[in-house]
Structure formats: C-alpha cells, structure tokens
Amino acid sequence: MQGFHNISALAKELDVPRRLLYRWQMWLQGPVAPIAPRFAGLEDENRQLKQLLAERTLEVDFFKGALQKIAARRQGNGGTGETASTTKCGQ
C-alpha cells in the first residue's frame, strides 16, 4: 500500500477489513519467480493485470458492502424504496 502510512485509516475509508489490504499488498508485491528472457515482457504485463484485478476486486467488494448497507437500511425502515402507485379518481 505505497503512499499510505496508516493502513487502518485506509481500511476504514474503503470500508474493508485491514487484513484484506495486507493480503492484497502481499499478493501484488509478493515474490516473483525468475522468468526466462523470452518471457520478460510478460512479467510486467502480469504485474499490471494483477494490479488491475486487485483494484476491480476492491471496487466490487466496496459496492457489495454499499448495497448490503442500503438493503439493511431499507429493511430497517420497513420500506422497499419504491414509490407506491396511485390511480386517478374516476378511472
């Protein structure tokens, strides 16, 4: 988590468990096995793809949490979030 000195604050801001951020950090910066020279370009591409996947996973987890909170609020107030339909008089 380069650039962040307080992982706890970041985890709170993103609404994800702190250990998940550490797991992603280890996964992104983990040891890289030696690659034959003909595959050298693939190492960079692989690292970029892993970072993109980690970012998308973070986004998905964030939005799942947000949707769960919205659903919990709707259940808590008894509303569905939908507007009741009405009919005009005389129809």
Radius of gyration: 22 Å
Global geometry: elongated
Counting H and I runs of at least 4 residues, what is the number of helices? 3
N-to-C CA distance: 63 Å
| Percent of sequence in beta strands | under 5%
| DSSP, total strands | 0
Helix content: 55-70%
* Low-pLDDT windows of residues: none
Structural class: mainly alpha
List the domain count as a whole number. Answer: 1
Architecture overview:
About 65% of the residues lie in helices and about 0% in strands. The protein is mainly alpha-helical and about 90 residues long. It has one domain. Helix 1 crosses helix 2 (about 20-30). It is elongated, with a radius of gyration of 22 Å.
Features of this protein?
91 residues; mainly alpha; 3 helices; elongated
Task: Briefly summarize what is shown.
This protein has 91 residues and is an all-alpha fold. It has helices at 7-14, 18-29, 40-76.
Task: Explain the layout of strands and helices.
Blueprint: H1 7-14, H2 18-29, H3 40-76
Helix pairs in contact: 1-2
